[in-house]
Amino acid sequence: MTTICKRAWVHGSVQGVGFRYSTQQEAKTRGLKGYARNLDDGSVEVLACGEEKEVEALIAWLKAGGPRSARVDKVLTEPCGPEQPESFTTG
Question: Which positions are annotated as active-site residues?
Answer without folding.
Answer: 20, 38
